Amino acid sequence: CVGDSGCVLQTSNGGTTWTRKHSPTTQRLLGVAVLTADVAILVGGACSRRVYEYGGYNDYPCSIIHRTSDAGNTWTMDTVDGPTAYVGFTAIRFDTPDCGWAASNHLIYRTTDQGKTWRGNSNNRLPYGWIDDICFPTRWSGFIVGEGGMLVHTTDSFATWTDRCQTVTGLGSS
Predict the structure, then answer these.
(1) CA gap 90, 70 in Å, rounded
(2) CA 58, 62, 67: angle at the middle one, nearest 5?
(3) Facing residues of 34 across strands?
(4) Does the pLDDT at position 174 exceed 50?
(5) Mean pLDDT of 149-172
(6) How would you classify residue 115: left for phi > 0, otherwise alpha for psi between -120 and 50, otherwise beta?
(7) Which is more confident, 15 or 121?
(8) Closest CA to 82 of 66, 56, 68, 64
(9) b/e per residue, 43-81, with b = 16+ CB within 10 A?
(10) What is the pLDDT of residues 63-104, one digit of tens each?
(11) What is d(CA 173, CA 68) in angstroms, rounded to the nearest whole number?
């Protein structure tokens, strides 16, 4: 479980009790994927990478990914360059310990090496805003939900997608 101010919580009994774990950041964390008993990935936050080129400095956006291989005792930070960086990754899900998905503003990214590298498909940009969550019941079939009632579905690992519902109302808490 992750949240504001870098909060990282862990449970080993189905959520009856929770233990606060060492956090690698004080930034808001938006998603966690637990791949094995020892390996987990946290997403959230954005960064900027300053690069000297063409006689001057340019800032390029990047997304922050924190990774542990010792059950959260220590973390390493990686970055992913590209358009995700303006808001950072907002959701992460894995369908196997090696293969997973991360979402950012309009874009879906795929990894096949436990999140060490990510590849986005800017040609398959979603026409909506903020992506809140990803769900893949099977390796090929998945759903994305997000801002403004967005609900899209894929049956080919997001090579293509279908708009299932543009406006969903009445889902707030009572």
Answers:
(1) 24
(2) 145
(3) 40
(4) no
(5) 70
(6) left
(7) 15
(8) 64
(9) bbbbbeeeeeeeeeeeeebbbbbbbbeeebeebeeebbe
(10) 678 889 998 888 888 766 554 444 577 888 888 889 888 887
(11) 34
Single pTM value for the model? 0.72
Amino acid at 13: N
Residue tagged 């498909």 (tokens): 121
> Which pLDDT does position 153 carry in this prediction?
85
* Residues counted in the chain: 174
**Cα 72 to chain center, whole Å?**
18
Full strand arrangement of the beta sheet holding 119-120:
91-94, 100-103, 108-111, 119-120
Continuous H helices in the chain: none
What is the amino acid identity at position 166?
A: Q
